[in-house]
């Protein structure tokens, strides 16, 4: 995995630039733009959950759509079957997905790069095929009728897209600063050290497995928050959300943005989602173009857009 | 009844074997997982469809489609895979992910989104009586093809000098190079062969399952599981893995349909837990 160079100043500048654009788009945009911004924000949360384990722990998960699905389905079931408020259920799904993530992590975090990818892919597909056949989860029809949080007691209607987009944006901001804090904490430093040379860390008595498992579990929880918000945005959940290609596209987002800077992942999610949306509205064969795009990006954009920004910043000095 | 299911399971195992053997040996040689391997299976089936339609000969399709798939593999190796051998696994995987998108949309553009069917050649379109039960002879033919390929690969890999060079390159590429083994050439040919076998799997399965966009996704994950369970990089691992997964899947679907899929993943999970290197360790 490519080593990550931290540039806290640029990281923060990029984040605020993206944040301001989102706020402006949300305030001045129409119904569709607001919905679109909310989608990008939710995808960004998913992308940074992938970025965190890929960059800090060297773990590339092609099965993270499972946690997106756990967040979405758990929210649907908690709100519809158990009458728990949507807001509380987002927190609950975080706990549920983190626990499931921790159990899975216990078995897989020590697998080597490519094996980790294959095993996460297979686990994700296991969840996907289970969801498709489960009557309790609505099978291939999914579940509909999921409500958004009721904030009427402070005079706010979350069914208003302007409000809901700000609501998901608040989630992104909280998660972002939490992850920045963790990245710069002893846990983050330990993860960096493990990624660079895990044998040496074991030799000096570090808990390689435990640190990686905690990181994976946290990432699973964050992905589930994205799932929970996604299902509240749309009001329904379809099992397609748990397909492994969703994880693949998430990974493409962090490659485009640049791995390891967290802000880059948000930039990547924004760019990829906009390009996908614009392309698919112009041509039918957009997947062909996107496929070539993926290949070119992987081949030629070493540090993604983040790397480009760093170069520009250097030249300006 | 049991015999019929046994044969169905064997046929499915052989299809999985044709797919897995290429993937596993490419993995052994290059440490690359080609997610687009399933796409070559789909492309093989589609090319076979067109050849059958134009020439009215399934036999011609059976020969030419795999050769074309191998050619596509050779081109992909030369322009892409050769250059990403030492890239990190994430980039390799995502590059092949891009190929999946390209293959899927190309197939849709060229052949449409409808599903097609190929009819088995006349000689094989009947059923044979096996212990008083009729059984489609075409499926027996697929089993035979799988066994023949298995036999030929076994002879080549285990009994010939070329096979020894391939095995040496899998086990220790650097030492192999020191011994004047041209590992680049070996990679090129095995990559093309693996893709050709995926194409063969596609065209042989087409008369049974039909041809449709998305058929690649269904087999891809199963093939990956075969590779993980069997133990990557070995012919024997691919055999053991495809038989195990093929039988568990086929019998599971008959006796416990709700849990069939889950059981396959459980087999994989147990393998990872107790035999992380796969059932057959080289």
What attributes does this structure have?
heterodimer; A: 317 residues; mainly alpha; ABC transporter involved in vitamin B12 uptake, BtuC; 1% strand; B: 282 residues; 75% helix
Number of strands of chain B: 2
CATH class of chain A: Mainly Alpha
Kindly report the average pLDDT value of chain A.
87
Question: For the report, how would you describe the main beta sheet of chain B?
Answer: 2 strands, antiparallel
**Global outline of chain A:** globular
The name CATH uses for the topology of chain A is ABC transporter involved in vitamin B12 uptake, BtuC
- Beta-strand content bin of chain B: under 5%
Number of domain modules of chain B: 1
pLDDT averaged over residues of chain B: 87
**Biggest interface, residues from each chain:** A-B, 40 and 42 residues
Strand order within the widest beta sheet of chain B: 1-2
Rg of chain A computed from alpha carbons, rounded to a whole number of angstroms: 19 Å
Report helical residue fraction of chain B: over 70%
